[in-house]
Amino acid sequence: MGYSIVISATIVFLTEEYICSMNWIKQNTSLFLIASLTLGLAPFTPPHIWGKLQWIAGGGAFSGEQPMQSADWFDLAMHGAPWLLLILSLILRLIPNKKA
């Protein structure tokens, strides 16, 4: 069963939809920049994402007196997604297009 999942994921990975979505991410760098500077940094004093990253880096996210709850992980995903998409978009812009 595990092999069929890997093979299926590989086939999906190489489909035209994947290529189109990568082009969409590559073309919307400015959208991801605006999202990162607004949603990614909100609230602005101090940025929420920074506090969550410090919480994880400090080791208190998984254990300790107050480990991160489900809402904290969701919050990290919401504030971190624009940054991840921006980084991915910038990396895709740096990779030259290969035409067959």
Task: Provide an overview of this structure.
With 100 residues, the protein is mostly helical. The chain has helices at 2-13, 16-27, 29-38, 48-57, 70-94. The chain is elongated, with a radius of gyration of 18 Å. The two termini are 34 Å apart. Mean pLDDT is 78; it is low at 1-9.
What are the salient characteristics of this protein?
mainly alpha; 5 helices; 69% helix
Blueprint (SSEs and pairs):
Layout: H1 2-13, H2 16-27, H3 29-38, H4 48-57, H5 70-94
Helix pairs in contact: 2-5, 3-5, 4-5
The overall strand count is 0
- Output the radius of gyration: 18 Å
Helix content: 55-70%
Distance, first to last CA: 34 Å
Count of individual helical segments: 5
Determine the strand fraction and express it as a percent band: under 5%
Strand-pairing-aware structural class: mainly alpha
Give the integer mean of the pLDDT values: 78
- Low-confidence stretches at least 5 residues in length (pLDDT < 50)? 1-9
The biggest beta sheet is recorded as: none
> What order do the helices and strands follow?
HHHHH
Shape: elongated
